[in-house]
Amino acid sequence: MVYPGAVHSRFEHSLGVYWLANEAVHKLKTHQGMELGIDHFDIQTVKLAGLLHDIGHGPFSHLFEREFLPQVRNGLDWSHEQMSVDMIDHIVDERCIDIDSGTIKKVKEMILASSKFTLTKSSREKQFLYDIVANGRNGIDVDKFDYIVRDSRACAVGCNFQFERLMETMRVLGDEICYRAKDYLTIHKLFATRADLHRTIYTHAKVKAIELMIVDALVKANDYLHISSHIEHPSQYWKLDDTILKTIETAPDPELKESRDLILRVRRRDLYQFCNEYAVPRVKIEHFKDVTAHDIVCSQKSSGEILNEEDVAVTNVRIDLTRGRHNPLESIHFFKDYESDEKFSIPDYCHQICDTHELLVNKESCCCHHHIKI
C-alpha cells in the first residue's frame, strides 16, 4: 500500500537466501576447501536451510508473530523459526520425502541457530556453517544480505552495502567466519543500512497505521475464524497466508463486519491518523516502559474531544544494530591479510559505531477514528 514494489510472501526472499547460501558456502570451499573439509553434505544442508528458514512465517510475516499473536494468545512462547522446523517435519512426513534424517536435523539446527529455541548441535565440527544462514554470533548472515538489498531496491531507496565484497573476502579462522580488517566499513554499512530501513521504511507512519489496522481486523475476526488456532497444527498452518484479508473481505458473515470495514478503510486509504511520536532519550531507555492507549487517554486534557482507549492505537518501536543495546561489531573478528591466521576484534572502532548508531526507541500513536481530530 505504501511501497507497491514490496511483497510480504517471503517466497522471493527465500529463493534469494537459498542462492546466497549456496554462493557463500562455495566461496569458502573455493578458498579453503581442503583445509575446512567442506563436502556435498555441508553444501546441501546450508542451501536447504536458506530455502526453508522462513517457511514458518504467518500472514504478513513479523506482523503476525509480533503484533497479532500477543493480542490473541498472550504469553504464548512461539516463533516463526520454531514453526519453520515443525513445517519441515510435516512436509517430509506428509509427502513421504526420502531424505536422510541427519540432513534434516542439521538443516533445523541451522535455521534455529540465531533464535532462543536453538538446538544442541549434532556435531561440534564445522561450527562456521551455522553462521551462514542465521548467524547467532554477530548477525552477519545471508538472510540479512538478501532482505536489505531486496527491500532497498523494491522501495527505491539507496543501498551502499555491498555483500559481494564480504562474501569474496571472508575466511574461516578457528571455526568462525572472519573478515578482513579493511572491510569493517562494509560491515558498518550493513548494520547502518538495516537501521535506516527500519527508520524510514519499516516504521514509516503510514506503514505502521496500515499494520495497526490489519492487526485490528485479524483480532476482530479471530474468534469467528479461529485464525490463531492454526499455529497448533502444521497441517492447518500452511493454509494461512496473506489471502486471509481477501477471505474476510468476501465473506458475507455478519460476525466479520467490523473486520471487513477496517480492510475497506485500508483499501480506500482511510487510515488511522498519525498523531504524534516521542523519541525516548538514550539515558532513559533502560527504565522506560512501553506506552499504552490507557496511558495516553489518562493524560488527555479535560477540554475538547474526549478519547476512549479504543480510539487510540500505540506502537512502540525499537531500532538498533540487531542485538539491542549490544553492538554486534564487538562480536566480529577480523584478520589482517590472507597470510595471517590470527583473528582479532577492533574495539575502538566498535565503540565509535555504537555511539553513532545508538538504540532508538519511538513511541508512536494513532487515532483510530477518521472523524476525531487531535
Automatic annotation (TrEMBL):
Residues 10-148 form the HD domain. Pfam families: HD. This is HD domain-containing protein. It comes from the Eukaryota. SUPFAM superfamilies: HD-domain/PDEase-like. CDD domains: HDc.
